[in-house]
Each structure stands twice: as C-alpha cells, then as structure tokens.
Amino acid sequence: MSDYSFAYLDEQTKRMIRRAILKGLAVPGYQVPFASREMPMPYGWGTGGVQVSAATLTPDDTLKVIDQGADDTTNAVSIRKFFEKTAGVDTTEKTAEASVIQTRHRIPEAELTEDQILVYQVPIPEPLRFLEPRESETRKMHALEEYGLMHVKLYEDISQHGAIATAYAYPVKVEGRYVMDPSPIPKFDNPKMEMAAIQLFGAGREQRIYALPPYTQVVSLDFEDYPFEASKADHPCDLCGAEDSYLDEVILDDAGSRMFVCSDTDYCRSRREAGHSGRLGEEAV
Amino acid sequence: MTPLLQVKNIKKLYGARIGCTDVTFDLYPGEVMGIVGESGSGKSTLLNSLAGHLAPDCGEVIFDTRANGPVDTVTMSEPERRMLARTDWAFVHQHARDGLRMSVSAGGNIGERLMAVGDRHYGSIRERAADWLGRVEISENRIDDRPSAFSGGMQQRLQIARNLVTGPRLVFMDEPTGGLDVSVQARLLDLLRGLVREMGLSAIIVTHDLAVVRLLADRLMVMKDGRVVETGLTDQVLDDPQHSYTQLLVSSVLQV
Predict the structure, then answer these.
(1) Cβ-defined contact of A151 to B82 (cutoff 8 Å)
(2) Which stretches of chain B sit within 8 Å of chain A by CB?
(3) Which residues of A touch B101 (CB under 8 A)?
(4) Nearest CA-CA partner of B180 in B161, B152, B206, B154
(5) Interchain proximity B113–A148, CB inside 8 Å
(6) Residues whose CB is less than 8 angstroms from the CB of residue B183 and which lie 6 or more positions away in sequence, other chains included
(7) Alpha-carbon distance A131 to B148, whole Å?
(8) Is A168 exposed, middle or buried (0-12, 13-18, 19+ CB in 10 A)?
C-alpha cells in the first residue's frame, strides 16, 4: 500500500475531472474547461492525459501507455511507472489486455473494443488557434458553428503545396456539429476514430477536456475536389512485413540507408511472434 | 418601394458622452449615402452601430432581408446578424489590415466568405477568387501572395474584392480612401463607382473627404457632435450648404 491517494490526485479533484469528462461525453467534441492541477511533470509531457487517466482508473484496471505508438520511450515509461507507484494498477504492453490506454500522438493498430478507454494527451485543443488567436472569438465561432476559417487553412495548403499538406492534427467534424482537434495523431489514424472504445482528450496546460462516445461520427474536413486521404509511408514494415500499419522512418547510417518500422511496437512484436517477417526481420531482432 | 435599410432614432452613448444620437434615415436599393463630418463627430460610431459592431443604446436598424422581409437587426439573434454580415452585408475598413487576414494568401482572403457560407469545391473557389482579383485590377498571378506583400492601394482593393465576392446588397465603408495617395485614391474611387453601378449596390460611406462623396454619394448627411445637422442630395448640400457648420466644412476644402 502506498502513501499516495489512489492515482495521485485527491478525491475532490478526480470528481471534478469526472464531471468534465461526463459533460464532454454528453456534448461530443465540445471543449469542457476544467481546473487543471499541477502535476509532478512539466507541461507538454502529458499532464492533461495523466489527469484524465487518474480520474478514469479503478484498482482493477490494466493500464497501457504509448508514446508515438511505442511502449518503451521515455514519456511512456515514466507515466506507466507513475501509475504503478501511485495507483498500484497492473500495467501491460499488450493492447488487447489493457482496459485503459493513455496515448501520445497515435491510435493503436489493433482494433479497440467497447471495454476499453483511450486517453489522448493534447497539447493545443483549439483547432482554430493558429487561424484566430482570440479565445473569446474562437469560442463564439464554435458556439455559432462558424467553421469557414478551417477550410481557409486547407485552401492555403492546396494553393501552396498542390494537396492538403496537413499530415497530423488533421481537423475533424464530430456528429456534424463541433470541429475538433484530434490531438497530433497522423491523419492515417483519423478514420479509426469512429471506434467502439470511449475516447477522452485531456489538455493540461490549456485546461480543457473533450471526449468522443463509442461509435461517434467523426468526419475529416476536406474539399469536394480534394478529398481526405489517410496517408502513410508507401512501404511495408521492415521488421514484421505489415502493409497496413503506420510506419516510422529510421536512418541507419551516414550513407543514407534507412528502414521503415511500425510505429506501434506492440503490433509489430505480436506480428513477429506470430511468424511474420519483413526485409530486415531476421538480423534486426 | 421598400427601403433596403430603415434607420430609426439610433443612439449610442459612451457613458455620459454622446457617440451619436437621433439619427433617422432610409436607404433605398441602389442608393449611396455619404456621411461626412470632422473627427469625433460620431460618424464611425454610427456606422459601427448600423453594421452591428456596436450595440446601440436605443433605436432600430431595419434591413430588408431576402428571406423574411424587413427585420430589425438590433434585436435579431447574434447568429442571424453574423450570417447577414457575411452574406448580404459587407464592411470595408479604413485600414486594410483590419479587414484582411494578413497571413493568408490573396486567394484565401477572397475565398473565406465563400467557404463560410458552405462552398466546398476548391476549383470553383479559386476560379471566383481569380475572377475577383481581375475585377479589382490585381494581376491573377498574385493570387498566392500574401497581402503583406501588396501595396496599400492593392490591399484596399483586395479588401473590397473579399467583401463583394458573395454579392452583398449593402456595403458599409469607413474612410475607404484614407491614407492613400491621390492618384491611387482616384483609381480606387473609379473602381468603386464602377462596382456600385454594375452590381446595383447600396452603400453607406463614411468619410471626411468631400471629394469622395461628391463622386460616389447620391445623398449626404452632415454630422456634428453626434447629431445630424444637414441632409440632402449631395450636390445640393455641397453647392448650397445651409447649416453654418456645413458652410465651414465646404469652405475649408483646399482649392488647388
């Protein structure tokens, strides 16, 4: 038994956050303000996601934490250890075994189920922020459903690059109402957001929580003549040979040789354990 | 004929000070109304109250909407008023920077109103943006340049294109030629006069430059200390001013 309150936060704070989460679920895509607490980690390291996870976890939960798809990077390891210590919950790296998954900038490749909750870490929850700097004005634009400006951004993309160059944090419209920032996930993950699991978004520095109930309609914004495309690197994974997963590019030496690997480490490992192999599969393992 | 805009007893106070008061007039379709007066006479306050940027303390601004006929815009709901502001109304600011998005290309600036009313076809948005650049005499190959790379006169013309692209029926202009040199002013006025005639626009133009209203306005309203002191046909007011302040104003113009 640790001396921490369960999952670090005190009960009143968790209650406050749960109320914000419930409101967020009731109004999908709406940014609910909440009294974000100081957490023992810097802003930008997932303080919002951690607070949402803390308010969501129960002692019976199994937690998985990923950072850009990986279970073994600094951010993921430290948050996982944080909850091991303060909540004493079981942790796992296997997507299917987890009941709560906190993620930074990816959605796991394996399909999530109705028994799971996906918690996103969000740096900037306001999709209109870089187009309209005034918060008073963006709130009004959300309230009145004035989203023409969002398309101005996409227009600028096409006029400058010949295609919609926005590759991550690609804006979506939720249930035909709120335009929402899906956090900086690659646009490859956007179509997965219509899923069975509950999705919760926490932005600690910006003090906002928003949410998507299961099977919520999530549409990526686009033009009729430039439709949305979920893009990824045009390669199979060099370790497991998967053709359908989102890939990271890894530079191997000074001579310019490189490899593409699944960004979802659990997905890649489970495929290799099942006998799949890619171009560099044998030597790299 | 129903007036496009009926203004009744508009009053705007700043605390105890008067912004403008007792302003009443009708504006008919295709008519251009000039409002002149010195700095601080309440003409900008009046324009902003009419355009919904400021909430007047009392009075009515009744606009003849396409769908529902004459409606008081002061009491209508904010979504309706903002919808009106980006469809049937246009507002040309004195400083183009206030009316443009400086970090968005010229094409994006013109396209914004189209996208705001639901146009979702890139090709057609771009085509109309190019068409409007041509109409305000900006070369089509500047479509992807940002307004910050434009001269003052071009910025002002771009602002006009951005406002007129949705085919508004009423244009509010606040000193549209302020801060431009005279030859650029002359071309801008020429352009405005052409557009107003061609599109059958109604306009309310606030200015302190009597030459501007002489060229553009059918009717004139002279303001002083927040009140209207004289109204009439432009030529009549300028050639035969009745009120002592109007006489002062007309006689103050420098003769070259």
Answers:
(1) no
(2) 78-79, 82, 86, 101, 104-105, 107-108, 111-113, 115-117, 120-123, 125-126, 143-144
(3) 131, 152
(4) B152
(5) yes
(6) none
(7) 16
(8) middle
| Residue from the list B78, B105, B121 with its beta carbon closest to the beta carbon of A225 | B121
- The three-point CA angle B86-B89-B90 to 5° equals 85
Furthest-apart CA atoms within chain A: distance in Å:
60
Question: In B, which residues are within 8 Å of A156 by CB distance?
Answer: 104-105, 108
* Beta carbons of A7 and A18 less than 8 angstroms apart: no
C-beta neighbour count of A214 within 10 angstroms: 15
pTM of the model: 0.87
Dist. CA A93–CA A85, nearest whole Å: 17
Closest CB to A223 among B86, B105, B121: B121
pLDDT over 90 for what percent of chain A? 92
Strand partners, A200: A119, A211
- Rounded to a whole number of angstroms, the distance from the CA of B90 to the nearest CA of chain A is 16
Provide the pLDDT for residue A285: 46
The DSSP secondary structure of chain A, one letter per residue, reads: --SSPTTSS-HHHHHHHHHHHHHHHHSTT--EE--PPP-SS-TTSSHHHHHHHHHH--TT-EEEEEETTBSSSHHHHHHHHHHHHHT--EE-S-GGG-SEEEEES---SSPP-TT-EEEEE-S---TTTTT---HHHHHHHHHTT--HHHHHHHHHHHHHHSS----BS--EEETTTEEE---S-BGGGGGGGS-SSEEEEEETTTTEEEEE-TT--EEE---SSS-------SS--TTT--SSS-EEEEE-STT--EEEEES-HHHHHHHHHTT---TTHHHH-
* Count of CB pairs separated by less than 8 Å, A with B: 52
Identify which of A159, A223, A225 has the shortest CB distance to residue B144: A159
Q: Is the pLDDT of residue B4 over 90?
A: yes
Q: What is the pLDDT of residues A224-236, one digit of tens each?
A: 999 999 999 999 9
B104 contacts A152? CB cut-off 8 A: yes
Instruction: Give A133's contacts in chain B (Cβ within 8 Å).
Output: none
Phi, psi of A129 (to 5 degrees): -55, -45
Host H or E run for residue A55: helix A47-56
Which tokens in the block code for residue A60?
Answer: 């019976």
**Residues of A noted as catalytic:** 29, 237, 240, 262, 268
Question: Smallest Cα–Cα separation from B35: which of B247, B254, B244, B218?
Answer: B218
Q: Collapsing DSSP states into helix, strand and coil, what is residue A36?
A: coil
pLDDT tens track for A75-109:
999 999 999 999 999 999 999 999 999 999 999 99
Q: Indicate whether B206 pLDDT > 50.
A: yes
* Beta carbons of A159 and B126 less than 8 Å apart: yes
In this complex, which of A149, A160, A225 lies closest to B112 when CB atoms are compared? A149
Residue with the two structure tokens 């690059």: A161
CA B36 centroid distance within chain? 13
